[in-house]
Amino acid sequence: MLRKVVYNRVYVILSLFIIISPGLASAATYIVSPESDDRFIQAAINRASDGDRIIVKSGQYRENLNVTKKVALIGLDTGKGSPVVDAGGMGSAVIISADGVTFEGFQVVNSGKQWKDAGIKVISKNNVIRNNNVINNAYGIVLDGSADNNVLKNQVSKNDVGISLYSSERCNIVENEAWNNTFGGILLSKANNNTIRNNNASLNHWAGIILGESSNNTVSNNIARYNENEGIWLLRSSANTIRGNRIRYNYIFGIRLLYSNRNSVNSNTVRNNLDGISLEGSNGNVLAGNNLSINVYGIYVDNSFNNRVYMNNLINNDKNVHSWNSTNFWNSTEIISYSYNRIPYNRLLGNYWSDYFGPDPFGDGIGDLTHIVMGTERDYSPLMKPSEMYTLRG
Questions:
Q1: Band of the pLDDT at 27, cuts 50, 70, 90?
Q2: Average model confidence (pLDDT) for the chain?
Q3: CATH of 58-69+77-392, one of 3.90.1150, 3.40.50, 2.160.20, 3.30.1120
Q4: Residue 4 has pLDDT above 80, yes or no
Q5: For residue 310, which of 290, 283, 282 has the smallest C-alpha distance?
Q6: Nearest alpha-carbon partner for 124 in 152, 165, 154, 96
Q7: CB 323, CB 373: distance < 8 Å
Q8: pTM score
Q9: Taking a C-beta distance cutoff of 8 angstroms, is the pair 269, 292 a contact?
Q10: Cα 270–Cα 271–Cα 275 angle in degrees, nearest 5
């Protein structure tokens, strides 16, 4: 009887081992180091299987990597800095062609200078690119025909373009430092439905964030300062949301819309630029709730029509508005429910102008006299106080 019980237990244990052993076999860890026999990252990638992990220690790795497996590549600082992947001026340093890759903790340098040569080039989906330092490449990080990727907390500088999205969708570009690049910090080209959030795109030699022929993207809570032309530039782009960004000390444009229609530009702080917001050949956009101050022109409008501009604060700009050959709405076009001094009202709402001094006999926060914007343009419902004093309801 005892022998039978023992046999049964052994059978159960062996059965469990058979069940779980395939899972154990598929989770190998490879360690790469210049001081070990395993000193080439690509060789480890070639040996690995999907689901494996490759840990790379500090050192210089003069390789061009092609990540063809669903692996996690982890750069580990063992006291001599992050491991460096150096392309030596030829091609892309790292190409991620498999789906579901994690690539983090590396310094990536010296790609070639051909079209779309990059420090890190992603041509697949569902990848995580995190905590890398990407320097001196044609493109720092480029997502090319990809989808559902996350680019997080990377330092991307001294490239031609910091982070680029070409024909890529549903990607998240979050908390990166994209600065001091030759052309732009972050560039979207024919890229739709992406999120660009909490990045610092400053000190670039053309623009901080650029959207070209791109739609339905959300650009929010970014910093764009000291760029040589634009903080944020939309070119032939539509239906994007530009919200909550802090844009200062760009030499020409804070936010520029050029041939761009039906975008929402709201709740941004735009100060100390030549133009706070510029609309050129751009129609049907909504500018609402922005703080525009100490610019030469708060809003500059040229050949643009049917834009709705309301609930903005235009304070101490040299000239609050310049409008040329344009007809736009300088107050809401629909009744808005709001509270002012804790009393509810339903009115059209315009903008707050630091040079407006009309009366408010009804105490509803709306000036009784229209504000002359420029020429025949009028704000018919100018605000008596900055827009944050009005609480929107509903």
A1: confident
A2: 94
A3: 2.160.20
A4: no
A5: 290
A6: 96
A7: yes
A8: 0.93
A9: no
A10: 80
